[in-house]
Specification:
The structure holds two protein chains of two kinds.
Chain A lengths: L13 E10 L12 H16 L8 E4 L5 H9 L5 H4 L6 E4 L5 E5 L5 E8 L3 H18 L4 E2 L3 E2 L11 E8 L1 H5 L3 H10 L2 E4 L12 E6 L7 H29 L1 H17 L5 H16 L8 H10 L2 H8 L5 H15 L28
Antiparallel strand pairs in A: 1-5, 1-8, 2-3, 3-4, 4-5, 6-7, 8-10, 9-10
Helix pairs in contact in A: 2-11, 7-8, 8-9, 9-10
Chain B lengths: L12 E7 L2 E7 L1 H6 L11 H9 L4 H4 L10 H7 L7 H4 L1 H11 L11 H5 L3 H16 L3 H22 L1
Antiparallel strand pairs in B: 1-2
Helix pairs in contact in B: 2-6, 8-9
The complex binds zinc ion (2 copies).
């Protein structure tokens, strides 16, 4: 078992992997308590150190007050900064590598939050990347560290390793089979958190879930990552299994869901972001199950991002009202399905219409 | 209302305990309540341990205790759920200890440490601590002794790490 050799089938479930480390400078109050000059000081010190890293050649370096609301939103949608950080202005900043794999938030809740984020199931790999950046920065920075409590963070929930490892998983079958709550509870019991698309307190739209470690003290980074990896592998298995079982026992329902999703996306003229996410999720499921053909699944993943509000506006290169966005979004999605054949429904076989799985039209 | 342990989730489980003429209350989210085995609002035996000094009505001097480094107080922490600076971890150690215990898997850091911190381990410092430990035990200052023992262990494991 290794996260380094992901089974390609895992790509149907795991969207991305990320490891984030929280660090603070010794001798400077945490950002939430620091006075302006201290915040500026820690921003300058960390930014200078970060820009000297080989990983950060050609990086995108900005203070939060230099970014427009839309630029900030773009970064949030790409998971390069948190929603909390987007609300920051003077005294906070970002440094993002040219490849966008490594990004640093200066003066979010901590002086420094660094992350490595990559598509696919690659926790080990992103951990190795950020574990290289961390000591490089430490050469130039004096981290707040205690032998007993580890890296000292503004919030005691992060103290110790300061590490949050997470994977974004796509679990449509577990949602359709109504097993998701059971899974979430089981995962919580194992000390992991399950959150929606944009982290804490967000809704799980598009059947996308973030699974991450909840505790940071008393466990080694590598052990934590291994534990998370093992649990994610189990979740992948459960999701795959749920897909098979649904195809076997409720084929009519699956064909119906995927067909409806195709129908709406291929024809709608006004499309909300939330509905788009849920329908794209079903199209992605349809592709995996072979119900929809001739569409690159990566195109669907791209659409998850492109149909977010800020990305939409960047795509057409102008500011759009919510109503205008819904129209542009619908048009992009129709375009995606333009050359994709509609999914074939199950052949009608009257003798197969049993009492159990029936769609006899009694409701009409 | 935020959960008093994780300071993140909405508090949905509420406990109150009457001691003498004082009522202490604690508000938790479901997962923290469960993690502490507090599933039954009538079962409050663990409350005292759980709250430590932070919520159970600490003595006045503790409430007004200030971090010498940054001026942060326990009242600030109760309000914000964030600390003022790195030194706050020492300043408010007594109150933080039960909180950290409730939140995390362990009470000691076992992950990686900065190269600089590893390099700082000197044999002299170790001997000094061992002497202090012996003295603390002799004088029956056990709480201090336990702290020293932890510190020595940490230094030793760090020394091992840097020797690799
Ligand atoms: Zn909680
Ligand atoms: Zn302080």
């Amino acid at each position: 078992m290794s996260a380094d050799n992901p089974n390609p089938a895992d790509q149907w479930v795991v969207i991305s992997s990320r490891v984030r480390l929280a660090r603070n400078l010794a001798g400077v109050p945490f950002p939430g308590w620091a006075k302006k000059p201290d915040r500026q000081k820690s921003l300058d010190i960390i930014r200078t150190a970060a820009c000297a890293l080989p990983e950060m050649r050609g990086a995108f370096v900005r203070s939060m007050d230099e970014l427009t609301a839309m630029e900030k939103q773009l970064l949030v949608e790409r998971h390069l900064i948190s929603r909390e950080h987007a609300a920051k202005t003077v005294g906070s900043g970002v440094v993002i590598s040219a490849s966008q794999v490594v990004s640093l938030m200066n003066n979010e809740e901590d002086h420094l939050r660094m992350q490595a984020l990559m598509p696919g199931f690659c926790l080990q790999e992103v951990w190795q990347i950020i574990d290289r950046v961390d000591p490089e920065l430490e050469e130039q920075l004096d981290y707040a560290f205690s032998p007993k409590l580890g890296y000292l963070t503004a919030c005691p929930t992060n103290v110790g390793t300061g590490m949050r490892a997470s994977t974004m998983v796509h679990l449509p079958a577990l949602v359709l089979a109504e097993q998701i709550n059971q899974i979430v509870q089981a995962v919580n019991k194992l000390g992991l958190a399950v959150r929606g698309l944009y982290g804490e307190g967000t809704e799980a739209s598009g059947n996308l879930f973030q699974i991450s470690n909840q505790t940071t003290l008393g466990e080694r980074e590598s052990d934590l990552i291994e534990r998370l990896t093992k649990i994610v592998i189990q979740i992948i298995e459960r999701e795959k299994n749920a897909r098979e079982v649904l195809m076997e026992r409720r084929p009519q329902m699956i064909h119906d869901q995927v067909g409806r999703a195709y129908g709406v996306l291929a024809n709608a003229c006004v499309q909300s972001s939330k509905e788009a996410m849920n329908l794209l999720s079903l199209v992605r499921l349809g592709l995996d199950l072979g119900l929809i053909r001739g569409l690159d699944p990566r195109r669907v993943d791209e659409m998850f991002l492109l149909t977010q509000p800020a990305h939409l506006q960047q795509h057409v290169n102008r500011k759009l009202s919510a109503e205008q966005r819904d129209i542009v979004r619908a048009s992009l999605l129709r375009d995606m399905l333009k050359d994709v054949d509609r999914p074939k429904p199950l052949p009608l076989c009257l003798s197969d219409l049993s009492e159990g799985e029936s769609d006899t039209g009694q409701n009409n | 209302m935020r959960c008093e342990i994780c300071k993140t989730n909405e508090a949905t489980v509420h406990f109150s305990q009457v001691t003498g003429d004082k009522v202490s209350k604690i508000d938790l989210c479901e997962s923290c309540a469960k993690a502490k085995g507090l599933t039954d609002p009538n079962n409050i035996t663990m409350l005292g341990d759980l709250l430590g000094d932070f919520a159970a009505g600490p003595p006045a001097e503790a409430e007004s205790q200030r971090c010498p480094e940054c001026g942060f107080t326990q009242a600030n922490f109760k309000k914000q759920g964030r600390l003022g600076c790195a030194v706050c971890y020492e300043t408010f150690e007594t109150g933080l200890r039960p909180l950290l215990k409730a939140m995390h898997k362990g009470e000691r850091h076992v992950g990686k440490s900065p190269r600089k911190a590893r390099a700082r381990v000197s044999p002299e410092r170790l001997r000094e601590l061992e002497k202090e430990l012996a003295l603390a035990i002799k004088e029956e200052r056990f709480e201090h002794a336990a702290q020293l023992r932890d510190e020595i262990r940490a230094l030793e494991s760090k020394a091992r790490l840097s020797a690799r």
